[in-house]
Amino acid sequence: MATTATPTFTAFRQYEPNEAACIVFIVVFALLLFAHLWQSIRARIWYMWPLILSTGLEVVGYVLREYSIHEPVYHWPSMVYVGPGYSIIRPTWITPVFVGFDILAIATQGLGSAFIFGTELDINKLTRGRTVLIVGLFIQLVAFAVFLLLAIYFDRKTTVALRGRVASIRPLMNVFYLSGALILLRSIYRANLSP
């Protein structure tokens, strides 16, 4: 009698999705979605709809992750079929490096803002605060630009090597590039218009 083994994730051996965390995030984001939706409708605050849409997309993303935990042989909800060999740097470094830079940028911006909006009205402190704030904004800008360049390299290399196999993620990459360009424009705008 033949037995069927449960398929496991093999593309990234270091990545095993945590089902409990996934369910927690589905519940948390679903609650936030309904809370924001209720607030927006009740108070007739229509400018909250981008927040509501993005929260809804978080719910969908975590639902798809939950689905991929139970159906690991179907690759459409995730990109596990694209191997780590197509990246310039190790995939395990991407999150720590770029989240680290993001934390550094936010902390630097917070420090600069603290100088600017402190209780003392000292012109030297205001000037120093503005400089620190702009440095934080440029750290964020440069880190995100490097991240986009790495993504472009990865996309081009996988497109050449895998061709039709990655065609299904082309719309995802196009949306990523569009949102990345908008984030870069916002960062440049903020860096130029800092107080």
Automatic annotation (TrEMBL):
One Pfam family it belongs to: RTA1
Subcellular location: Membrane
Membrane topology: Multi-pass membrane protein
Chief location: membrane
Domain of life according to the entry: Eukaryota
GO cellular component: membrane
Residue intervals passing through the bilayer: 20-38, 45-64, 93-119, 131-154, 166-185
Keyword Magnesium: no
Signal sequence annotation: none
Keywords assigned: Membrane, Transmembrane, Transmembrane helix
Protein name: RTA1 like protein
UniProt organism field: Serendipita vermifera MAFF 305830
Organismal lineage: Eukaryota, Fungi, Dikarya, Basidiomycota, Agaricomycotina
